[in-house]
Write a structure and sequence with these properties.
- With 342 residues, this protein is an alpha/beta fold.
- It folds into two domains: 2-79; 92-313, Spore Coat Polysaccharide Biosynthesis Protein SpsA, Chain A (Alpha-Beta Complex).
- Helices cover 43% and strands 17% of the residues.
- The strands form three sheets. The chain has a seven-stranded mixed beta sheet, with helices on both faces. It has a three-stranded antiparallel beta sheet with strand order 7-8-9, with no helix packed on it. The chain has a two-stranded antiparallel sheet with strand order 5-12.
- Strand 8 and strand 9 (240-245) form a beta hairpin.
Amino acid sequence: MQLRRVCTPSRFLFWCVVAMAFFVVLMIYDTFRECESEELRATKRLLDNYHEQNQELKNDQFILKKKLKEAEQQLSSLSSDGKSKWVPGLPVIYLITPTYTRMEQKAELTRLSQTLMHVKNIHWIVIEDADAKTNLVARFLKQTGFNYTHLNVATPAHFKLASNDPSWLKPRGVLQRNAGLAWLRSNTKKQPGVLFFVDDDNTYSLRLFEEMRFTKKVSVWPVGIVGYLRYETPIVTDGKVTGWFTYFKPTRPFPMDMAGFAVNLALIHSHPGAGFSNEVERGYQESTFLTGLGVTLDDLEPKANMCSEVLVWHTRTEKSSLRNEEKMWKKYGLQSDPNIEV
């Protein structure tokens, strides 16, 4: 009787509800715990992945820094001795430079060499207009540390300019360039390369040499301060050379300056008769040479941003006056030491 009073149906129902509520709360709690655990595990996985990727990036960064340092050291070792850089497998640029004895000769060769020492894979062919090689040029070339060839051939007197003649009256460097071409044909065969005629008094951007290095046949570009114009240039339409911007005889086959083109070495070998002549009409040296190579307008490859940029200038050094040498001796009894090379 007493137990019945304690466990009345209403009380029993109450405790059943309480128990059910407790189990519901417990289940909800467990569910939340499971969700939180899954989120935590997912977050942990993301963090682990992040740390792994971060470590990989750090490792890659370390490797890149190491390779960069090695490359810098290699470049430094290549250029620290003042010599031009050499990269195996890169096409060689063969440079033909006629030169002659004058007061400004060493100064101009020095200035040119300071540019060339920054150009990879060059072979400099320097040809003196003289009966014999001079000690000045021989010593100079040896000191550059370049790959070079030193030649000489004298221009006959009747083809030489007189002291008061304008520079355009007679062609210059004709036999010297031909001697350079003959050396190339005898000493280079199947190796990839490019020929460029480099005058010792011109000014060259380093970019120009990389523009010409992979010339397929003949590459062309503008030349500044030439022909009594600001520049001369091929005219380019839709990526092809279609004409010429020049004042002097624009109907010539190739009315451009010697500094305005480079030729693939294969063309030099496939056309052994192509060269220059003292007998051609003024302004036709370039046309004579390129025509002899069988080049047409369609073969020309416009460089220097489709011939819209000037990367070479036809500069000239002012001829030096030494009138005070004699006055120095007469007035002070002093003279320059002939043993000091200028």
